[in-house]
Every structure is written in C-alpha cells, then in structure tokens.
Amino acid sequence: MARTVFCQYLNKDAAGLDFQFYPGELGKRIFDNISQEAWGLWQKKQTMLINEHKLNMMNADHRAMLEEKMQAFLFEGAEIEIEGYKPPEA
Q1: Where are the alpha helices (DSSP H) in the chain?
Q2: Is 7 within 8 Å of 34 (Cβ atoms)?
Q3: What's the pTM value of the predicted model, to 2 decimals?
Q4: 37, 7 contact by CB (below 8 A)
C-alpha cells in the first residue's frame, strides 16, 4: 500500500515518495511533505535548469543554486522560468 502525504506543493493528499531521495534535513522535509507527482514535476524542471545553465553538479555553487530553486519550487510555489521554454497549450 502506497504511503500518503499531504503534499505542500499540490495542496492535497497524494501518494508519497517511496524513500528519501535527497539527503539531510531538507530531504526529510521533502519525504514528509512532497508527493511523487510533485517530485516528478520538480525533476523535469531540474533537468531543464541543468541543461539551460550548463550546471556542473560537481560545483558546490551550482548545487547550492539548484537546491535554492528546488526549495522555492516545492515549498514556496515559485514558478521556475526556463528561458525560451513555452509550455504546450491545452
């Protein structure tokens, strides 16, 4: 049976993550408060950010910037802008 959490990003009960994907206190906060669906949305944005800015995950400054964007996206409702990207129209 899937674990259910109240997702702070979606503002509803949803299937929780199967395990803690991110280390530390922030990882615990994500595990306890973010759904699989919201994590998947973040992963898509993260990939776009890494590609757009040519981020190197070995660079501490790049990792810190990505973590800051992740927190803003998941917990503050910030919309992450990807230069030149236009979402498909419904």
Answers
A1: 24-33, 36-53, 60-76
A2: yes
A3: 0.86
A4: yes
